[in-house]
Design a protein that fits this description.
CATH superfamily of one domain: Hedgehog/Intein (Hint) domain
Helix content: 40-55%
CATH topology of one domain: Endonuclease - Pi-scei, Chain A, domain 1
CATH class of one domain: Mainly Beta
Largest sheet: 6 strands, antiparallel
Strand content: 15-25%
């Protein structure tokens, strides 16, 4: 028995190991397995739209829907090294009816589902809770890829005497930039249409670029006097085909070409140089700046991201004339001059003079991001978009975060702990994302056609749900009635009724995930089959450093380039069965009367509990006792009631309040301390934002806060002494330390 309990504790610790801030979720998974029940995780998918630019670990950029490669909604295994340094192992695709778009003061923006978390100065915050003026974290620089991108194989199109281009270099990238501005395609030629003035400089530059790319001068000038235009026509079927493949589709969608996104910064600089040469102005009003305009907004957003490779922070501004991108600040302009630049000598000289004047005349803090990987930017706008759209999310173990259009996002995949539990148990695992179009064959296995010809109704269940020990079904309440009906009996009886057959399944526990609690009466009974329910939240800001440190340790252990590290099992299914028998033998006599009273209080407060769930709650309480190494349940174990009785998030808040009132356990003290901690954090943000504001009102308010915090410290000390609990003492000391940091800030102002 002792060995099994020890193994259980090791299992729980190993389950939590790669995750930060997910201790409670790990506990819920173990409670579910120990009680041999089923569980739902409630929480919307935190996803972004397909035009979102993401970065891999080396700095190669991608539009996320290009990475998805036209896949339909579902969960797909991938092996993608994201930036900041981590590895995405799954790509999740959903269709959703509405979104929220947030835009920062610098112009960084993402369109995301309501609960998609982004990093702010107060932690991970869902986009629906952001307001104008909130501070979000944006990146100030991106790494640059080291290797050049290969061009498509087009040997059959290469004309005699011309080069076969094999790599996208800075010369080809600059030509691509000019093509996006001036270009059009014929079957065996490429045209660049310029006005007569531009042709004096840019026409020569385009011809030079084509000559360097192809190794021959294939261009001719055609003058249209009546339109004052010059057409530079390049006669090459090969060049036409090359540009068609490299940029044509992206031009149609106003996107940065893929080959430019994936190239090193000296290559993308060539592309930027062409666009800035044509569409930018250099001005020196109150301060000097480069202004890029007359481009589509989606293209401007892509340019803003490309500039981060050079450590250049820019701003997108909306005006009556449209959108334009502005680069200002001494450091930003100097980096642009050194690493991107212009083609014309005139513009380079003008930029040089602006930088010189900046250095002499301006005490420049704007654009000063040298040495910083990120900056905090204000939210400028938050708006709802009501339209069905496809969205995407990664599952990223350990860090759970990734770069999205300059903003740090948090993935919300809910399956990671369940998958890891199956691995540690060496259990057969099945996972799937359900939609109303999902066919039973996708979940339960296809029919055996050969057997059907022989008059037998047989399913091929290998690798499907009927053979799994542990299963995870995402978007479980979106399944059609055929699948829901089959799952209903499977959850209750562990039997799959299929045609004329009854298939007994080895399923131990099934975990479901959903964006929301179902409100359809027909699905309500199915929802009730899930004994445990847990509402998932993003990682709190207190744990960022732990999250990053743990991510780095696991990157070293697992290695981005090696699959040599394999998790060993901690327990197996047979031992889980033994633990389940131990759960059934836990002595519950000392808590039954208290539980009856607790259930009555919950009912009186409007929280209805079905008779079925009232019976199941005892098993979960017993499992909680066993996790804590006891074979006799105590009042402390009644805390597990919250995982069973709450139907939705609103009810969970009520249940937590009732438990803190009714149970004489550390839970009451911990709950109050956590509430105090949250309030003190808000006060810290408030004080920090006003500490440089000279105002009599602010000084008076600070004195009031100072007095309130001193009283709060006394309350915390009282709670710690009253509880006599080490966990309460630890949290109490943490909150007192936070209060002291606020008091120190205030003292510097009022003394």
């Amino acid at each position: 028995m002792k060995d099994l309990i020890t193994g259980l504790r090791v299992f729980l610790e190993r389950l939590k190991e790669p995750f930060v801030g997910r201790d409670e979720e790990a506990k819920v998974v173990v409670l579910t397995l120990l009680s041999r029940e089923h569980c739902t995780f409630i929480g919307e998918p935190g996803c972004v739209t397909g035009d979102t630019i993401i970065s891999d670990a080396e700095g190669r950029l991608y539009y996320i829907d290009d990475l998805a490669n036209s896949r339909t909604p579902g969960i797909y295994p991938i092996n993608f090294p994201v930036y900041p340094l981590a590895r995405a192992t799954e790509l999740h695709i959903y269709d959703v009816p509405s979104l929220i778009e947030i835009t920062s003061d610098l112009g960084y923006s993402i369109k995301a589902t309501y609960n998609h978390p982004v990093l702010t100065d107060r932690g991970w915050v869902e986009v629906r809770n952001l307001r104008p003026g909130d501070r979000i974290l944006t990146l100030a620089k991106l790494p640059s890829p080291k290797s050049l991108v290969n061009t498509p194989e087009l040997k059959d199109y290469v004309e005699e005497g011309l080069n076969n281009v094999v790599l996208v270099n800075d010369v080809l990238a600059e030509l691509l930039g000019f093509f996006m501005v001036y270009g059009s395609l014929g079957s065996d030629y490429v045209d660049f249409t310029l006005d007569r003035f531009s042709s004096l400089v840019l026409g020569l530059e385009i011809r030079r670029l084509v000559r360097e790319v192809l190794g021959s001068d294939v261009c001719r000038d055609i003058v249209f006097n009546e339109k004052d235009l010059v057409l530079v026509r390049c006669f090459s079927k090969y060049l036409s085909k090359l540009l068609t493949i490299l940029v044509f589709n992206d031009v149609q969608r106003s996107r940065i070409p893929r080959c430019v996104l994936e190239s090193p910064k000296n290559v993308s600089a060539g592309f930027l140089r062409a666009l800035f040469e044509v569409y930018s102005e250099l001005r020196f009003d109150s301060h000097g700046f480069i202004q890029l305009k007359n481009l589509d907004l989606s293209l401007i957003k892509g340019i803003q991201i490309l500039l981060l490779r050079h450590g250049i922070t820019s701003r997108i501004i909306s005006s009556g004339e449209g959108y334009f991108l502005e680069i200002s600040g001494y450091e930003n302009l100097l980096k642009f001059y050194d690493e991107v630049g212009f083609i014309s000598t005139e513009k380079m000289e003008k930029l040089k003079n602006i930088i010189k004047l900046y250095k002499e005349l301006i005490n420049d803090d704007e654009g000063r991001t040298s040495g910083r990987d990120y900056i905090f930017d204000l939210v400028r706008d938050v708006r709802v978009i009501s339209n069905y759209v496809r969205v995407y999310d990664f599952y990223i173990p350990y860090t759970h975060m990734f770069f999205t259009n300059g903003i740090l996002s948090h993935n919300t995949a809910k399956s990671a702990l369940v998958r890891r539990a199956a691995e540690l148990l060496n259990a057969r695992f099945f996972k799937y994302l359900l939609t109303k179009f999902t066919e039973p064959a996708e979940i339960f296995g296809p029919l055996d056609i050969k057997a059907l010809h022989d008059g037998k109704y047989v399913r091929i269940t290998r690798g499907k749900l009927p053979e799994a020990d542990i299963a995870f079904l995402d978007e479980i309440f979106k399944a059609n009635s055929a699948i829901l009906n089959a799952l209903n009996t499977l959850l209750q009886e562990r039997i799959l009724y299929d045609g004329y057959n009854e298939i007994r399944v080895p399923l131990w526990s099934l975990f479901g995930a959903s964006n929301e609690v179902p409100d359809d009466p027909e699905i309500e009974a199915f929802y009730d089959r899930f004994t445990l329910r847990h509402f998932v939240r993003p990682v709190s800001e207190d744990l960022w450093r732990d999250l990053l440190d743990k991510s780095w340790r696991f990157e070293i252990i697992y290695s981005l380039d090696s699959d040599s590290y394999v998790e060993g099992k901690v327990l197996d299914i047979s031992q889980l069965r033994e633990l389940y028998q131990m759960v059934l033998n836990v002595d519950l006599s000392s808590v039954k009367s208290k539980l009856v009273k607790l259930l009555a209080v919950l009912e009186s407060r409007g929280i209805h509990i079905t008779d079925r769930r009232k019976g199941k709650v005892l098993k979960v309480i017993a499992a909680h006792s066993l996790i804590n190494g006891r074979n006799v349940a105590t009042e402390d174990d009644l805390i597990a009631v919250k995982y069973v009785v709450a139907r939705d998030l609103e009810e969970l808040e009520k249940v937590n309040t009732i438990l803190s009132e009714e149970l004489k356990t550390p839970y009451r003290y911990l709950r109050e301390l956590n509430e105090i901690k949250a309030n003190v954090k808000e006060i810290l943000n408030y004080v920090s934002s006003l500490r440089n504001v000279e105002s009599r009102f602010v000084e008076m308010r600070f004195r009031e806060i100072y007095r309130d915090l001193e009283i709060t410290k006394e309350r915390i000390i009282s709670l710690v002494i009253e509880s006599g609990n080490k966990d309460v003492e630890k949290l109490g000391n943490e909150v007192i330390g936070l209060i002291d940091s606020v008091i120190e800030l205030i003292r510097g102002r009022i003394t």
